[in-house]
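Before relying on records like the one below, remember that each one covers exactly one chain. Contacts with other chains, cofactors or solvent are not represented anywhere in the record.
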Amino acid sequence: MALTDTDVQKQIKHMMAFIDQEANEKAEEIDAKAEEEFNIEKGRLVQQQRIKIMEYYERKQKQIELQKKIQNSNLQNNGRLQVLKNREDHIKILRDDARKQLVVLTRDANNYKKLLEALIAQGLYQLLEEHVVIRCRQKDLTLVQDVLEHAISSYKDSVKKDVKVTLDNENFLSAEIAGGIEMGTPSGKIKVENTLESRLELISYQMLPDLKEILFGVNANRKFRD
């Protein structure tokens, strides 16, 4: 049976409708697949950026903590240095005050003469030389002359050794010092300083650990007590 034009047109429309439906379904499938892949890629990129942001702020946090530690360490070190400086300044003030008080020792002539005799005898024991030259302040020249023979006699009796002592009448010690004497060989190669200032420095050095303990308390880092 031959198809009429109307039947042909119907079949064509039917086929076109089928093709159109398949195309729409395929397009919807492609859209769905594309949207799925887009969402997966978007999630991957978002997660990737989230990790980068977290790592960035984690590094920043570590840098901040490190800077805080460095800053705290610097503050502690500066604080310790300031404490040490304040302590040294305080000890220096005490030394200066003690140095000013040295002149009190020379006001009593009798006591000062005994001190000069002891300083001379001690210098002789330290030098143990055959010939010794003594220098003093010009104002102390008479006092030194008064005690010199007795100091020499005590030295000779103790060490059983003769000594020649010359008192320098030209090159005096500075009038600015508190007192005391300076002794040495005629060549000047060997010398003993027994001025009041040098004795104070020696005593203050020896007493420094105990002085710091009295002023600032026990030092936990101090290993030896004697």
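The domain at 101-212 is CATH 3.30.2320.30 (hypothetical protein PF0899 fold).
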